[in-house]
Design a protein that fits this description.
Strand content of chain B: under 5%
Number of helices of chain A: 19
Number of strands of chain A: 2
Radius of gyration of chain B: 21 Å
Helix content of chain A: over 70%
Strand order of the largest sheet of chain A: 1-2
Largest sheet of chain A: 2 strands, antiparallel
Number of domains of chain B: 1
Radius of gyration of chain A: 21 Å
Oligomer: heterodimer
Largest sheet of chain B: 2 strands, antiparallel
Strand order of the largest sheet of chain B: 1-2
Structural class of chain B: mainly alpha
Number of domains of chain A: 1
Shape of chain B: globular
């Protein structure tokens, strides 16, 4: 068997093993762990980039490597690398747990890579569970044990419930079509979509991914988990984990070919409710991480707009949107992590005076917030624009209009964040934030990426289109 | 189409961007350097826009100084800038207001660097929108021009600034929530895979139904920014709250963006929709004119008075557009220009007075004319322009619109003209109470405008006079665009 297409996964497996070894060391050494993780993650990005053009099926056709999966693997490796960049002061997690923290991050990234390449329903399920279990533990690792454990337990209970539902859906799907390979589903499903059993089976299967993406009604875990987990873990859940969820959702929706009207209707409704619930609930939040959790729910709604088009262009726009989400969500969390330098949660009021304490972070926050809200010339706007254009080509005018109204609603709370950072003065004077040069460069770079990719999106659009083209 | 031998239009944008970059990288405490950089680069944009206005070949007409670069080819997005008879007056207006706005804020002390940086972003977008002929870019510029407003008003504003800023931003972005679906709707239904307005405006591209549907979205969406009644309520509140230069740019050019985009996007692409909805536009515009005048009558704050007079004057622009005639279009575009200069002068003049007296409440002022005769005269001239006194630019715009309106909508035209009387009444009342009458002893020690600080106001005043005495300078320009456009209508 040719193992070449599997190199990135093998690499991340080896990376995980390094930290397994380090976790057995008698004395904890956070600096060593941090630099090891940084080095391995940076090398991992390189490995993934070098393997972008791999193609082929391995493991008896249960595992598919193509441009689609490889693009997402680059995004995932990049997500991991970015998260580790903000782990230099990992105060949210006890020092003796640092190696485990990195171990779980690597394993979780590995699992998500398996997920985006899965071509058999069982591969997908196992990969999904592996990534979920890593996250359950990561959430519970928080130093402040009460909130961490509570969040971990909530996440776990909802997660296994959804897993059961998903398995039930898989069983229904199998009983109706007798296929388990994704490649065969592509052949069989489009013709079988008028059977209720298939539609229900497919929807229940998709529930597992809805849960990952925090789509209504599977979003209840999101605010509590975001709030309870350590800041870096939340950042990871909000970026890399969402990217993987988007990938697998595209992969599973693409098997239905042109799709069925029932499926599209359900997706449209879920999309509308997710956007609206997410945006309305975000308005009243005071904890920045909770607010971002609800904004994630809203973004899941925007993602579904592109997915329910069930066209190659629609999938391409969603891939672009995933790239945008990765960058802009991460930037927002970079600010959260750096402003909350004691590792606690960040309240909106703590942003007060940020424009004086660190003009760079305030600017990064402003650009990421505008990008999340979808204001040009940022990458977030281009993403939304593409998704809306895809929906409009399918004739969903009302859906686009509702989405735009949601954008305006969301703008209200995004502006409140800006108001806190730029207008409000802190009750007691707080010292300027000292940032390491690396973080300054990273923040500046992210701001540039968000703006430049918003103004010159051509290359990314072409990449996303090429990735989407291999789906069928 | 005449391609440009030198990218003048892009040069305007680039000088904004360059100025912005220099401001960003200048240390915060060197305020006077920041102000000079702002003045120089805004001066360059003014010179360029004047040059374009003069160099445009009126005998040739059509699109000139064209710059076309493919941007995202797979989606048919082009970076497409051009100058024609409609947008040249607007570019000139923006250049003048931008430059005078920078000078008006010369005495700013608080967070100077950030103020000028946001101010440059906003004006950059205004320029971009006026010169663009690509739907996608028009939307981008539209949104970019709005988002700095929130911080500009909320940080540097005055009365109820946070409320005003939030209200303004949400209202205007709600407008863009209607515009974006309409743009994508046209894009998806044209089948041409392009955002190029010159290609999309070919007759027969859209069915009458599509045109009617898209036009009403454009009209309401952009109309919110143009201050169309009943979507105007953000405007007085926002203008009162904003710092002077922002009020100048906002009332002077941003509201024009709304009206201009209705013309450039709505009317160009959906002429049948325009004809279908024209009566509705006329009704709303007339209500706006009358309503603005009457509400202005009862205001106690100087800036509120100007804010409501803006609603009234922008109603005249809307009325001109609704007549579906060459005269109406000419008058509307002229009125946009004249009103832009006039409100800029208003806010600039009030800015000087407010910085000295720290109040805008009419009852607390009084008798200012003997104390600061020059500063008062600026306001009084603006008030005269607002009343439509001949020899000042706004007279011609109003005249043309009313002539056209009488032909098409006699009742609406008559109502609108009668509202002018009310408008004259409230302006005279404000002038009388603020500048004449008993002197307020508190303000006796105040000094008059120095020559340096008077420059921006003098430029604005001179522009009002120049185009009031030689209206043909602009009318000839507009006609090179409006007459061919009308003849091309099906």
């Amino acid at each position: 068997m040719n193992w070449t297409p599997f190199y990135p996964e093998l690499y991340y497996f080896a990376g995980g093993m390094v930290f397994l070894g380090l976790s057995m060391a008698r004395q904890s050494n956070p600096r060593r762990d941090y630099f090891a993780a940084m080095f391995l993650a940076a090398l991992g990005v390189l490995v993934c980039l070098l393997n972008v053009n791999q193609e082929g099926f391995i493991f008896f056709k249960t595992y598919r490597v193509d441009l689609f999966s490889q693009v997402f693997k680059v995004m995932l490796s990049l997500g991991l690398f970015l998260i580790i960049c903000i782990c230099s002061e990992l105060k949210g997690i006890a020092e003796r747990h640092h190696p485990e923290f990195y171990l779980l991050l690597f394993v979780c990234t590995l699992a998500m890579m398996l997920l985006v390449s899965g071509a058999h329903i069982l591969t997908i399920y196992v990969a999904l569970e592996l990534s979920s279990y890593s996250l359950y533990v990561l959430v519970a690792l928080r130093k402040d044990e009460r909130s961490g454990l509570e969040a971990g337990l909530k996440y776990f209970l909802v997660g296994i419930l959804v897993s059961a539902v998903m398995l039930f859906g898989v069983a229904l799907l199998y009983s109706a079509t007798r296929v388990t390979y994704v490649t065969e589903m592509v052949r069989v499903l489009p013709g079988a979509l008028d059977s209720p059993l298939v539609v229900i089976g497919l929807l229940l299967t998709l529930c597992g991914f809805f849960f990952k993406l925090a789509v209504f009604p599977f979003h209840f875990w999101a605010p509590d988990v975001y709030q309870g987990a350590a800041n870096q873990v939340t950042a990871y859940i909000a970026t890399a984990s969402k990217v993987a969820a988007i990938a697998i959702l595209i992969r599973m929706t693409a098997v239905t070919g042109d799709g069925s009207i029932y499926l599209a209707h359900v997706l449209v409704i879920l999309s509308i409710v997710s956007m609206t619930v997410g945006n309305l609930a975000a308005i009243v939040q005071k904890d920045l991480k909770r607010l971002l959790a609800f904004s994630t729910v809203a973004h899941a709604g925007y993602v579904l707009i592109g997915i329910q088009c069930m066209s190659t262009f629609g999938y391409a726009t969603v891939i672009f949107y995933a790239m945008a989400l990765l960058v802009m969500k991460f930037t927002a969390f970079l600010v959260v992590v750096k402003v909350a330098d004691d590792g606690r949660n960040l309240q909106m009021s703590q942003l007060a005076g940020l424009h004086r304490r660190s003009p760079l972070l305030a600017m990064a926050l402003m650009v990421s917030v505008f990008s999340l809200a979808g204001i040009p010339p940022t990458i977030g706007f281009t993403g939304k624009f593409l998704v809306f254009a895809a929906a409009m080509q399918k004739g969903y005018f009302t859906l686009v209009l509702i989405a735009m109204i949601n954008v305006v609603i969301s703008l209200y709370y995004y502006l409140l964040i800006l108001k806190a950072a730029y207008l409000e003065e802190p009750a007691e004077e707080r010292p300027p934030l000292s940032l390491s040069p690396q973080i300054k460069i990273l923040a500046g770079l992210l701001v540039c990426i968000m703006v430049v990719a918003g103004i010159f999106p051509t290359y990314l659009i072409e990449l996303a289109s090429a990735a989407a083209a291999v789906l069928n | 189409m005449e391609y440009a031998d030198f990218p003048y239009l892009t040069a305007i944008l680039l000088s904004c961007i360059l100025g912005l970059l220099i401001i960003i990288f200048t240390p915060e405490d060197r305020t006077s350097q920041i102000k000079w950089v702002s003045a120089v680069f805004s001066g360059i944009t003014l010179l360029l826009s004047v040059y374009l206005f003069v160099a445009y070949d009126k005998t040739l007409g059509g699109l000139q100084f064209v710059e076309k670069v493919p941007w995202v080819e797979s989606l048919g997005i082009t970076y497409f800038n051009a100058a024609d008879g409609f947008n040249l007056p607007m570019l000139l207006l923006t250049g003048i207001v931008f430059f005078t706005g920078v000078l008006t804020m010369w005495e700013l002390e608080n967070r100077v660097k950030e103020f000028y940086a946001f101010y440059f972003v906003m004006v950059l977008a205004v320029f971009g929108l006026f010169m663009s002929l690509d739907l996608f870019f028009i939307f981008i510029w539209y949104d970019v021009s709005l988002f700095p407003m929130y911080l500009l008003i909320a940080v540097w504003g005055t009365t109820r600034k946070e409320y005003g800023a939030m209200k303004l931003t949400l209202y205007l972005l709600a407008g863009s929530a209607l515009v974006l679906p309409a743009i994508i709707f046209l894009f998806a239904n044209s089948g041409l895979n392009t955002f190029d307005i010159t290609l999309l405006m070919k007759p027969g591209t859209f069915t009458p139904y599509q045109q009617k549907f898209a036009f009403i979205l454009f009209y309401i969406g952009f109309g919110i920014l143009a201050g169309v009644w009943p979507f105007h309520t953000w405007s007085p509140v926002g203008h009162v709250a904003a710092p002077h230069a922002v009020s100048m740019v906002h009332a002077g050019t941003l509201m024009k963006i709304g009206a201009f985009a209705i013309l450039r996007v709505g009317i160009f692409l959906c002429p049948e929709g325009w004809q279908h909805w024209a009566p509705l536009m006329a009704v709303l515009a007339t209500i706006g004119i009358v309503y603005g005048a009457f509400v202005g009558l009862s205001q106690k704050d100087l800036k509120y008075v100007i804010g409501y007079s803006s609603v009234s004057h922008m109603g005249i622009v809307g009325l001109g557009l609704s007549t579906v005639s060459v005269d109406g279009l000419n008058g509307a575009v002229f009125q946009m220009f004249a009103h832009g200069i006039m409100t800029a002068l208003f806010f600039s003049a009030v800015g000087y007075i407010y910085d000295r007296t720290h109040t805008k409440v009419i009852a607390e002022l009084g008798g200012l004319s003997p104390i600061m005769p020059v500063a008062s005269s600026f306001f009084i001239v603006a008030a005269m322009a607002s009343m439509g006194i001949p020899c000042l630019a706004s007279f011609w715009g109003e005249l043309m619109v009313f002539i056209a309106a009488f032909k098409t909508y006699p009742v609406g035209g008559a109502l609108a003209v009668s509202a002018l009387v009310v408008s004259a009444l409230f302006m005279l009342r404000v002038v009388q109470r603020t500048f004449f009458g008993p002197r307020n002893e508190k303000f006796v020690h105040l000094t008059d405008v120095t020559f340096g600080l008077g420059i921006p106001r003098m430029i604005l005043l001179a522009t009002l006079l120049l185009f009031g005495l030689f209206p043909a300078l602009i009318f000839d320009m507009i006609e090179t665009a409006s007459i061919p456009f009308f003849n091309g209508l099906p």
